[in-house]
Amino acid sequence: MKFKLSSGLFIFLTPVLLWLFLLIVIPQIELLLMSLRGENNLGEPIWTFANYLHFFTEEIYWYTFVRTATYAIIVTVLTFIVTFPVAFYITKVVSKRLSVFLTILLLVPFWVSELVRVYGWMILLRESGVLNHIMLSLGLIDKPVEMLYNDISMIMGLVYTSMLFMVVPLISSLEGMDDSLIEAAHDLGASKWTIFTRIVIPYAAPGITSGSIVVFMLALGNYLTPNLMGGKNSLWFTEQIYNQFIASFNWNQGAAFGFLLLLLSSLIIWVGLKMSKQQLGRVLS
Amino acid sequence: MPVVLDIVDLTKRFADFVAVDNVCFQAEEGKFFSILGPSGCGKTTLLRMIAGFLEPTSGSLQIRGKDMLGIPPNRRPVNLVFQNLALFPMMNVADNIGFGLKRQRCPKKEIASKTEAMLERVHLSGYGSKDISQLSGGQKQRVAIARALVLEPSILLLDEPLGALDLKLREQMKIELKNLQREVGTTFIYITHDQSEALVMSDTVAVMNAGRFEQIDTPRNLYSRPASSFVAGFVGETNIFAASVEDISPTLRLRAENGVLFKATAMQEMAGAKKGRLFIRPEAIILEPDSGLDNLNRFEVTVRTILFDGSNTKILAMLGDREITVALPQNQQFAHITPGETVSAGVHIDACKCYPGE
Prior knowledge:
The complex is a heterodimer of chains A (about 280) and B (about 350).
Chain A: H1 7-35, E1 37-39, E2 45-47, H2 50-57, H3 59-93, H4 96-107, H5 114-125, H6 130-138, H7 151-175, H8 179-187, H9 192-220, H10 224-230, H11 237-247, H12 251-275, H13 280-284
Antiparallel strand pairs in A: 1-2
Chain B: E1 3-14, E2 17-28, E3 32-36, H1 43-51, E4 58-63, E5 66-67, E6 78-81, H2 93-103, H3 108-121, H4 137-149, E7 155-159, H5 167-184, E8 187-192, H6 195-201, E9 204-209, E10 212-217, H7 219-224, H8 229-234, E11 239-247, E12 252-256, E13 261-266, E14 275-280, E15 285-287, E16 296-307, E17 314-319, E18 322-327, E19 342-348, E20 353-356
Helix pairs in contact in B: 2-3, 2-4, 3-4
């Protein structure tokens, strides 16, 4: 049902519109303008695409972005692999009451701030951490192993922080699936693997896609986890943006990077949607 | 006729509840076999055991002489049409029907030709590329049946597939289903709680109650010679009286709860029984019977309501303090009867069927 835009509705919309316009649209325009500013040889401010070209000419920026995007895709795939069995178990295997309990159990850790959770992982993994202590006292190792500040622990941390955003859409799409579809496929001669690939996955496809988009974007734009768990060498693209703004104080360059991140990640998602033959409208509804 | 399905002493127990209790039956090749029973009688459990979704606690289950116990559903020569149809929403009609053939690694060409032939058989030619959501209820029904039949199963199991349809469509599908079964010659095992579905379509009907088969017979025999009090009450419309036994020989005589004395026919051994249940079909009650007729229980009834339904018109009348249903003959002979009138009525001894029990 569509409503006509009446003056009454307008009054209710005003705070939202103001908020959107003042806090989101205006700063974005400001950043866009900033990203297009530069200096000529004489140090005079001019309009230029130099900030954007920098990204393509300086290998390190380009490399950092590709690395970030690749890892974000890996994180998305891993998150799906980890959460799908969980979602399937919660919706299709256990009883209704237990499934509510398990869903809540799954959500509880996410009521705590990401920062605290990442520090939790660091306490477990660091050289003087819990895991090293246990392995030392069991005699499995002679000296502590540094398990933090590498790509594997960073990816693990990212998967952990993204899990919730994958599992919720998966649960809601699997919940809508009638169990008799699985039985019907089984009855018509399908093996377990065929049922999974031909019935369950296609049915859950909209949930998988929307979960993947959210996880991908969150991983790509995450600053905290790569920085804390990946250490100084994590080379995450958000760190490049941070460095431009804070360390180099080159706001123009930072703004350009910000827009490039937005454009390139949108492009990746568009390609992903085309490849999986999903429509954005259907995925979001 | 060779036996397709042979079930001996099949039992299924859930914790302390017996869902299917020592059921034995055989279904013959090419027959329409129905299992009729109230909801919760265990008929779905029985069907799921035949399909392979449940393993029986004890007993044997053979299809064409091969033991089926322990064989998963995807390797049994039976297919099931689900109650809610369970069509795959992400595939079109042709892919739904071809799903099973694809699993059998049928060549693509053969899948296409078999699917097309099946669509034609269920009067859906040209619907192959439609989405499931574009079909009407009756069309979905036919796709579900086609999807199972295309695999040429030894037995097609149907789990109340007409339940979701509206009355008119259901009547139409009944006839279509019966014709389809005769054309393809596959053995159908059909479970339902709707007695009209079972009676109209089946060659043989098994009436199930509380996990047991009460009677396995032709629809006609079920109606005219019910083997038990449950069958007499469940199959067809009937007037039921609780009665006490007055006399057993030479003729069985019962005093019904409303005080009327009936001469009746014992359907089961009545010796020693103090109480009985008396069943009289509405169409067995004759209004204004000829005085020359013998072996008639005669009584007077007071008409309360006339339920006009064309050829199926009935009246509700009071016999003592009990309301009974009387079917009117189709020749409009009693069109003059109005509510409040008192009419003489009679019912033949053979039509008063009595079973021992409360």
